[in-house]
From TrEMBL:
Gene3D superfamilies per the UniProt record, alphabetical: Hypothetical protein, domain 2 (1.10.340.30)
Entries under SUPFAM superfamilies matching the protein: DNA-glycosylase
Listed Pfam families: Adenine_glyco (PF03352)
The name this protein goes by in its record: DNA-3-methyladenine glycosylase 1
């Protein structure tokens, strides 16, 4: 958890494959602890072809074996959503829009800098996350409610929700 926080969480990321991975993991986390998801991350990478959305989009036939894979979270709705979202991301790519471009347009390509003193101040969602969630659903994404989307925005650095006294806050604010 510490390594994830120190090296990855909240750091602006523009790699569409990595963004798909984190969106998928946020979906898997719904109702569970993040620690559970991190513990299964490597197994998810193996099961989902290192989150290559071009390969994941065609995994419907693998759903029965995914449901038997004890190394991952075997929630059928979450697995189907991951495959569906890969299809949507591939459709975006085929139309000339990367998943990176699609997501970062919502924050004008610049992380929103919050100024939270403690984690108790950090909301579970925001109006912007609700707006993004609504647009994503309209565009065909699934299992992308506002809480999942806000967690995703935090994870990929679209918002800087590190506490102001955290070393990472200043590093990200200076970028």
């Amino acid at each position: 958890m510490q390594q994830y926080h120190d090296q990855e969480w909240g750091r602006p990321n523009h790699d569409s494959r990595h963004l798909f991975e984190l969106l998928s993991l946020e979906i898997m986390q719904a109702g569970l602890s993040w620690q559970t998801v991190l513990n299964k991350r490597q197994a998810f990478k193996q099961a989902f072809h290192d989150f290559d959305y071009r390969q994941v989009q065609g995994m419907e036939s693998e759903l029965p074996s995914l449901m038997k894979n004890a190394a991952i979270i075997r929630n059928r709705r979450k697995l189907i959503a991951t495959i569906n979202n890969a299809k949507v991301i591939n459709e975006l790519a085929n139309s000339g829009t990367t998943f990176d471009r699609y997501m970062w347009q919502f924050v004008a390509d610049k992380p929103i800098q919050h100024h939270y003193q403690s984690h108790e101040q950090i909301p579970a969602t925001t109006d912007l996350a609700k707006q993004i969630s609504k647009q994503m659903k309209k565009d065909g994404f699934s299992f992308t409610g506002p809480v999942i989307i806000y967690s995703f925005m935090q994870a990929v650095g679209m918002v800087n929700d590190h506490e102001v006294d955290c070393f990472a806050y200043q590093e990200i604010a200076e970028d």
